Amino acid sequence: MAGRGYGAAQEESVFSQNEKEWLQQQKDSINENHRMMLSAMDHGNLNGAFKYAAYVADEMKTASLTPKAYYSLYIYVFDKLRDLDTYVSEQNKKGMPMQEIYERVQHAPNVLSRLYLLICVGSVYIKSNEAPTKRILKDLVEMCKGVQHPMRGLFLRYYLAQMTRDKLPDGNSTKVENGTLADSVDFVLTNFVEMNKLWVRMQYQGTTRDKTLRERERNDVRTLVGANLVNMANLDGIDERTYQTTILPGILDQVLSCHDATAQHYLMDVVINIFPCEFHLTSLDRYLAGFAKMDNAVDIEQLILNLINRLTQFCEANPSKIAVSSENESTSLFTVLSNSIADVLKTRKSTIKTKGKLGLYEALMSLVLSVYPGNVSYVDTVFEKVLTSLGELGEKSIVVDSEVKLVMGLVMNPMNKAISEYQRRAIANQATDTTPFLTTRDFLTMSNLSSMLSLLDKKHRHEAAIQMMEAFNKAPPSIDTPELLEAIFKLEAPLVFSEEEDEEAEDADFDEESFAAEQNSVSRISHMLQNDHTDSMYRLLFLARKNFGKGGLKRVRYSMTPLFFVALKLAEKIHSIESGKMESASQMESTSTTTDSSDMSGGLIISSQKVFQFLLEIIRVVGQPLPELGIKLCTQAMLCADRCKDQTNAYEYMTQACTLYEDSLSDSKSQFNALRSFIATLQRTSCIEPESYDILIKNTTQYSSKLIKRPDQARAVSLCAHMFWSDRDGVNSLHDSTRVIECLKRAGDLADKIPPQAMQATIFAEILNEHLFFIAKGIDKSPTGYIIAIITLIQQRLPTLDQDTLGPMEAYFNNTLAHINFHKKLGANPAYQEITLPH
Fold first, then answer.
1. What's the mean per-residue pLDDT of the chain?
2. Which of 233, 283, 387, 468 has its CA 20 to 30 A from that of 119?
């Protein structure tokens, strides 16, 4: 221990000029006496060797050096006394009894130097096996009591520890008379206790009156005391029982009785680091109990952190070591640690601040995630312990950045662990891996998680909700019960629910892009809803709509749309069950649970009609503030109803779309886009009766002809032709050539009235392609002459186009002519033969 690390640091130390001079003088004296000692040895003069060796050791009497400089002097003396050790060993081998040498060395006049020599000779005496080891050790450790000067006595006992550390009886000792492992433990503990007392006394004595400087000097030599415990830990044969019944109680008694914060902190930390973790696991409660009795100035939270971190690393590397203790809940590592931390925090309530408390529980959480990876209750218990320990906060929120970071870590570290494990298993495709692990779904079952988040202020609570939602999206939980759904809405409340101050702050610092990203993330909750039982699934949808509805108008465009499409799937699934295309026996086994007496009939299976009504309610909620989105949802719902052969609802959705168009759309571009949706949807529907269908397409055609802008009118009316040529099923198919031609001619008349002739060319080219489309479909009475007129008109208008428009338009027109030429040559369709192309 002497030259290990500490000695290297000493060599780099910068001493004061006076210390350098004193050290040099003492080293010169040591060198001279060492030379004389070697001379005496060469002449076989044992007494002379002892005499000059005593002069070497006498230099340790100085009181002019700081502990660092004194250590440098000690190393110098230690090296010189090695020669005496070697000489005594040689004399013994030549036949001189060690008893005689041991007695002769005690004639040195000075106590300090005599004890240094006695220890040096005593170490050789032990090796010689001429006397019981335990008797010599006891003699030496008792003799050292003759030096009570703190620093001199400390280094003397350190010398004793160094010289005997490899000579102590241990579990491998064969001669009982030399001593046992228990004798060695007793020796080391005795020396440790005396060294600690001397070290504690150093705070009252020293080369300076500055208490802070004295404390720093005392810390410079703390490793001397710890060397005893290192020797103890290195003894062969030390087991858990010896540690638990003898070593730890002896150490704790001294640590607690010294009433010195510096000593208590250092020694408890040494115990953590030098003894095997197996020992800690068997005596953890006793070790932790000592913290409550320590001086208030001891940094207990740092000690506990070090202990938890070491145990965590050990348990990660040796999972089998904690398997047995985990079976007994009351004695498991987690239970012992969590209860002990709670007791310490309760006892040291006034000295451990919020940051310290959070740091302890963050370390405990790390242990849980490493040692008990699938134990949900332990994670929730950590949250509970945190809330209990921070109960004095009352209604106050945590706002200090370092404390906020710890709270966020406590919440997000388990979630990140769950995500990484989810992704690892997904990549490895470990479907059969039965090892327990946390899932994001588990967090929805934790009763204390939302309370943890309530510790944060509004700003950080919002940030936490964003991070948690990102986590849920990376590893989507399966939400199949109302309780889980309510839980996720509670956790994501800052993102889901609207507050009045949100609206007030909107004008000042509202970031539309960030808000949209947040809401798109939250809206994915709808896709997490999963339940094979259609009644239960409807209940989840109903509950989700209720919560999303509290988000205010600015949120519904993001939240309601995904919910709407999930409900569409449910409607089709229920229709399949109703029509006998899907088995529903499992659903019939249980009785439907009602959500609200006014909305759900208890004991009845939810019908597709009920879900279609649910969809209509969403459309009404969304359509009022967002008519364009409402119309899109109407058309999607209409297509779904059409697939389910539900004529009533299909017609109802289209009627609702028309109402939104008439009442809420005023922008020409929005109207045109809405009409395109109308036309595309109506052209694909097949379940609506011809009479009803005729009403809808007439309304759409009228809307098209009333658009404000002539180009939009012409385009919309030309698109209306598709509604009269629909490949609907069987009887309801519609192929009305006359109405198609009327729409296209009407579109041409409207295009002819567009003021800028350059625009006319583009519109007529589109109308021309619509004619060709219907010719390909087999329309009767194709207006060949009209088509030729359109081609001629386009050729006349091309020169009026500007350079930017001419290129694309000319390419479009030439491709159209090439298409006509191809079909003329192909000869499959007679209608193409009647079209005469200009040369």
1. 87
2. 233
Q: Radius of gyration over alpha carbons of the chain, in Å?
A: 45
Confidence of residue 831 (pLDDT cuts 50, 70, 90): confident
Q: How far apart are CA 185 and CA 192, in angstroms?
A: 10
Q: What is the pLDDT of residue 322?
A: 67
Residues in the chain, overall count: 839
Bridge partners (DSSP) of residue 709 are none
For residue 752, how many other CB atoms are within 10 A of its CB?
14
| 534 class by beta-carbon count within 10 Å (0-12 exposed, 13-18 middle, 19+ buried) | buried
43, burial (CB in 10 Å: exposed 0-12, middle 13-18, buried 19+)? exposed
The rounded Cα 374 to chain-centroid distance in angstroms is 15
Which residues touch 308 (CB under 8 Å, ≥6 apart)?
A: 337, 360, 363, 364, 366, 367
- In this prediction, residue 404 has a pLDDT band, given cuts at 50, 70 and 90, of very high
Instruction: Using the structure block, give the residue that is written with the tokens 């629909």.
Output: 726
Q: Decide if 619 contacts 627 (C-beta within 8 A).
A: no
Q: Side chain identity at 193, as an amino acid letter?
A: V
Cβ atoms within 10 Å of 730's Cβ, excluding its own: 6
Nearest in space to 619 (alpha carbons), one of 635, 602, 640, 604: 635
User: Residue with structure tokens 């000067």?
Assistant: 149
Phi/psi of residue 383, each to 5°?
-60, -40
Burial string for 116-127 (b: 16+ CB within 10 Å, else e) reads bbbbbbbbbbbb
Q: In this prediction, what percent of the chain has a pLDDT beyond 70?
A: 90
Q: What is the DSSP string of 728-754?
A: -SGGG-EE-HHHHHHHHHHHHHHHHT-
Q: Indicate whether 392 pLDDT > 70.
A: no
In degrees to the nearest 10, what's the CA dihedral of 397, 402, 403, 408?
100
Dig out the tokens for 714 from the structure. 């012409």
For CA atoms 41, 45, 50, 51, give the dihedral sign.
Answer: negative
73-78 mean pLDDT = 95
The string over 363-394, giving b where at least 16 C-beta atoms fall within 10 Å of a residue's C-beta and e elsewhere, is: bbbbbbbebbbebbebbbbbbbbbeebbeeee
Residue 725 DSSP code: E
What is the three-class DSSP state of 418? helix
The DSSP secondary-structure symbol of 479 reads B
Q: Single out the residue of 696, 659, 686, 657 nearest to residue 674, CA to CA.
A: 657
Question: How many angstroms separate the CA atoms of 817 and 838, rounded?
Answer: 10
With the C-alpha atoms ordered 705, 708, 710, 716, is the resulting torsion angle positive or negative? negative
Q: How far apart, in whole angstroms, are the C-alpha atoms of residue 26 and residue 36?
A: 15
Tens-place pLDDT, residues 622-654: 998 999 999 999 999 999 999 999 999 999 999
Residues 6 or more apart whose CB falls under 8 angstroms from that of 596 comprise 542
CB 412 within 8 A of CB 471: yes
CA 105/CA 737 separation, integer angstroms: 130
Tell me the two tokens of residue 394.
Answer: 């009352």
Q: How far is CA 218 from the centre of its chain?
A: 42
Q: What is the pLDDT of residue 399?
A: 87
pLDDT of residue 548: 94
- The angle, 0 to 180 degrees and rounded to 10, between the axes of the packed helices 608-623 and 647-664 is 0
Alpha helices in 59-106, H assignment, sequence order: 67-93, 98-104
- CA 121-124-127 angle, 5° bins: 155
* Structure confidence at residue 207 as a pLDDT band (50, 70, 90): low
